[in-house]
């Protein structure tokens, strides 16, 4: 039996992410901002806010909305704008000045919402505000020599932290259940990174993919960029929808 070595240009997944849109409604600027916001991942991490807030009744809807808005500004806009400043991984045409302005204003607005929450939740909320600012800036700007830019900090900051902050904002304390839920969010976020890191590498930094897989019956299958990236991004899609579905279910349970 002989096998042939095959090659596939990794140019098929040309976009930097599966949700990237070069144009939205015919306009490049809208497509750039859609891509910058990372809609599936932003919804995924905002779902942790909802899940943490709705873990235990009662749930204050006003506080939940304020918490969601703060995290959308800090993570959805601020963190992603800072990330795009470093090397343009998404290839947007948003100007550097606009990215800096968006990141500063959104993170400042998120912190302001937190400060306003001190009068409702209590002074202990200030700990979460400070930690949140450090996580967003430290991770995305790779401060402290890049020591904060790793999978563990990502899982803590984008998984565990939203759960604990939302729970604390609702109840003014933490519980064993909230810590257990934060651990679950940490592991899900680690899984996200394990899948998204190789997917990003294929899309953004891989020129050629070549090879074949030989099955036990002698059948050969070509290895291409598509065959490598499809299961990774398929799992990411499923996980993002699953976490969102859980969040919506908990909202129905608490408010339905």
Explain the overall architecture.
With 256 residues, the chain is mainly alpha-helical. The protein has one domain. It has eight helices and four strands. A hairpin with a 5-residue loop joins strand 3 and strand 4. The longest helix is centred in the C-terminal third of the chain and has 31 residues. The radius of gyration is 20 Å and the shape is globular. The N and C termini lie far apart (63 Å).
Order of adjacent strands in the largest pleated sheet? 1-2
The number of distinct β-strands equals 4
| Low-pLDDT windows of residues | 1-11
Q: Give the H and E element order.
A: EHHHHHHHEEEH
The proportion of residues forming helix, as a percent range, comes to: 55-70%
Task: Please provide a brief summary of the model.
The protein is mostly helical.
